[in-house]
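seq:
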Amino acid sequence: MQAIAGQCRKGNVSPELLAPEAATFTISNLGNYGVEMFTPVINIPQTAILGVCTIVPRPKDLGDGVYGFVPMIGLSLTYDHQALDGGEATLFLREIKEQIENLEV
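struct:
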């Protein structure tokens, strides 16, 4: 896996490694089309797909009786229960959430 990642970073990965049947996971981004929620379908024989939705302002309790609008993004994970346990999938989504909320640009 590390060798493949290194090839991707260098831009010289072989096309066979990028074929759909060689992948285990897909990210489908419909956020740039303004889609607020969708349920992606797994590409067989992969094990999971993450749907990324558009960022929209949503009301949030900021504490001390103060409410404001904050940007929120919808994520939808579809996975094969034969390959992944629901607990593992939940931990994966929590990690993505943490990474997004603590993103430094």
